[in-house]
Amino acid sequence: MTDDYVLSLIDRAASGRAFTGGQCFACGGEPTAGQGEHVIPRWTQRRFDLFNQTLTLVNGSRIPYRQLTIPCCESCNNGFLRDIENAVIAFLESPEFSDPGPRVTLGRWLCKIFIGLLVKETTLLVDRRDPSKGSILSQDFVEEFRHAQLILQSARKRTIFHSLHGPHPFTLYMYRIEPDDDFGEFDLSTNLVGQSIAVRLGPVGVVFVNDGGLQYEAGRKGPLDLDGRRLHPVQFSEVVARVHYKAALRYATHSYTSFETPNEIVVDQVSVRPFSNVRLEGGAMQIFQPWDDIECAHMIERYRPFQGPPVYDPSTGRFTTTLSNNRGGIQSPKRFLRRSS
Ligand SMILES: [Zn+2]
Hints:
The chain contains nine helices and 14 strands. By secondary structure, the protein is an alpha+beta fold. It has one domain. A five-stranded mixed β-sheet has the order 7-8-9-6-10, sandwiched between helices. Helix 1 (about 5-20) crosses helix 6 (about 140-155) and helix 5 runs antiparallel to helix 6 (about 140-155). It binds zinc ion (ZN).
């Protein structure tokens, strides 16, 4: 689709032009006049009837999905971005959980939405600032944005990732979702600080973290080893809250090298780079800040699709969730919801 090398397009987009110059978020080139790219794709809005749904931005304003757009050029929009959308639509026709291919597809797709939200939010923050005060884009931020772009843009050209923690340099868990009319077919949640994003699309729930796959260090099947399992929408929201919480505790990033030939891109995850020199018992470097069950309980409440009793009861010291019955098993969410209503 282009004679340009993908890595140079990424560098152009990540140099700040996607944030400050109103350039195409995917290649940094001239955007096409008009609406731009919908962060929540139009097919998703149609299929799940989301035209009047709104997203609350970090600055507190609410924006309808139909107006949530970012600058994009014709060539990216009708090229590799459309291919990703079509691959997700095809996957939803007959979801396959054991094949690793769809995980990469869904990873790219969620990464695209994550990048879109990040560009939208950052642009708003940059706009409100006095440009003479300089950029708010830190070096770590730009590096991690560049990494998210590598995941997304691996759809343009064959890309080989050598990853330290798992099959790909991001964390992704997938779940089969039990239908329940009370909770609809769609749910979206993000934690931009932790760089995590989750979506429930009918029979499939997916959560993605732009962390180089660091959460795989705590187990490849994610919270409570539930990857691939069948979950109620409320249970999915609890798993997602745990992933969002863990993502916010990340206290390390990675170093990468990448090179490109006319036929392929090779990305090597070289090392983990902790943000501190703290060592854990046993001598390993700290890569996550310490987990706190009570903070996590608040996170679960925040991401729940209903108002229920507190997850943590300070008077008894007990935690009540639909994922754990305190004996390590999964509670029936129906029973839980009846009790809490
Ligand atoms: Zn472009």
